[in-house]
Every structure is written in structure tokens, then in C-alpha cells.
């Protein structure tokens, strides 16, 4: 069982799919969202949560002031859990999309302010690099991208259109932050 750390739904427990996901720990989520709050990127943001799993990242963003969160997950059981979590927390603005992340990103129609890329640690770095390249058309001005990876994997290969900013290490988890280039 996991929980929403803070905001309008703070403290509420959320379900986690029984298999196939590795939820971001409450400790890492709390550190990440403290950073995002300090940067002022959450208020009224359009969020894209890729490899959503339980929906914890997208729902946490909604709880802390994001306007919308599109949660993309290919596993139908995980999608059902995300739907339940959105309903039980009472958070509005959650839109669950069942699709593989690359397939979903190839249909770029909207721009977003904040993106979470949190694939299974077993996924390859090449897959992450492909997703980042497909993500570029989705990014609005001043967008922020957060990639969560196992600390033993290499830094993502940032494509043109995404500029690496910093990496934060929390034990076995590394959060890679990047943004759009200044005009």
C-alpha cells in the first residue's frame, strides 16, 4: 500500500497493482515533489505520467495543484487500479490511457508542462532514449522532464529539444531532471 504524500489528498492510501510495477517510494516522491514545489512547476500544470503503474506520481501532482494528469499504462489491471485510485482520492483531472508509451507518444496532440518517465527498471536504456525522443513534440515552453531510473544504469541520452539539468540520487533510485531549451 502506498499513499499520497501531501496536498488536497495528502495521507490518503492508494492501491498498488499486485505485480508488474515498482512504485516510487514515499521518501523519493516526497523529495521530488518538494523540489517541484520549490520550482513552482505544479500549479495548474498539465502533467504526463508515463508508465504510470499505480498512478502515484500523476495523482500526487494533482493533489498538489496540477490541473490535469494523463496517466499512460499498458497493463489493463494497472489501469483499473489507477482508475480506482483517482476515484477514491477524489482527485479531478486524471485521464487514464491504456497504451504502450511509445504508441501513445506517437499520437502527439497536446503540450504538457511536466512529464514523469518511470519505466520498469528492467527496461532497457535504449527504450528510455526512444521514449525521450518521442516526447519532444509534447513539451511546452519551460517544460520539465523527470526520468526515474535505477542508480546503476547510465544517464539517459537526451535528444535535441531536451536539455539535462541535474540528477538526484536517493539510494538505488536516480531522478534525472531535464527541461526544454531557452528560446
Secondary structure layout:
Layout: E1 2-3, E2 13-14, H1 26-39, E3 46-50, H2 56-63, E4 68-73, H3 76-89, E5 94-98, H4 101-105, E6 112-117, H5 125-135, E7 139-150, E8 163-170, E9 173-179
Parallel strand pairs: 3-4, 3-6, 4-5, 6-7
Antiparallel strand pairs: 1-2, 7-9, 8-9
What does this structure look like?
With 183 residues, this protein is of the alpha/beta class. It has one domain: Vaccinia Virus protein VP39 (Rossmann fold). The protein is built from 5 helices and 9 strands; from the N terminus they run ββαβαβαβαβαβββ. It has a 7-stranded mixed β-sheet with strand order 5-4-3-6-7-9-8, with helices on both faces. Strands 1-2 form a two-stranded antiparallel sheet. β3, α2 and β4 form a beta-alpha-beta unit. It is globular and about 40 Å long. The relative contact order is 0.16. The model has no long low-confidence stretch (mean pLDDT 92). This is 16S rRNA (Guanine(966)-N(2))-methyltransferase RsmD. Its EC number is 2.1.1.171. One of its GO terms (molecular function) is 16S rRNA (guanine(966)-N(2))-methyltransferase activity. Pfam families: Cons_hypoth95 (PF03602). It comes from Actinomycetospora atypica.
Amino acid at each position: 500500500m502506498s499513499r499520497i504524500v501531501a496536498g488536497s489528498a495528502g495521507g490518503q492510501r492508494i492501491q498498488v497493482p499486485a505485480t508488474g510495477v515498482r512504485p516510487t517510494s514515499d521518501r523519493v516522491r516526497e523529495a521530488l515533489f518538494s523540489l517541484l514545489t520549490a520550482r513552482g512547476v505544479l500549479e495548474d500544470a498539465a502533467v504526463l505520467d508515463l508508465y504510470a503503474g499505480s498512478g502515484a506520481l500523476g495523482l500526487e501532482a494533482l493533489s498538489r495543484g496540477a490541473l490535469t494528469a494523463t496517466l499512460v499504462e499498458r497493463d489493463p489491471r494497472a489501469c483499473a487500479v489507477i482508475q480506482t485510485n483517482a476515484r477514491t482520492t477524489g482527485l479531478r483531472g486524471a485521464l487514464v490511457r491504456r497504451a504502450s508509451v511509445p504508441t501513445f507518444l506517437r499520437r502527439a496532440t497536446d503540450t504538457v508542462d511536466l512529464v514523469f518517465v518511470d519505466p520498469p527498471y528492467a527496461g532497457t536504456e535504449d527504450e528510455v532514449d526512444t521514449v525521450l525522443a518521442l516526447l519532444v513534440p509534447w513539451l511546452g515552453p519551460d517544460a520539465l522532464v523527470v526520468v526515474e531510473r535505477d542508480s546503476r544504469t547510465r544517464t539517459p541520452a537526451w535528444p535535441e529539444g531536451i536539455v539535462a539539468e541535474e540528477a538526484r540520487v536517493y539510494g538505488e533510485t536516480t531522478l534525472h531532471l531535464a527541461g526544454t531549451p531557452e528560446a
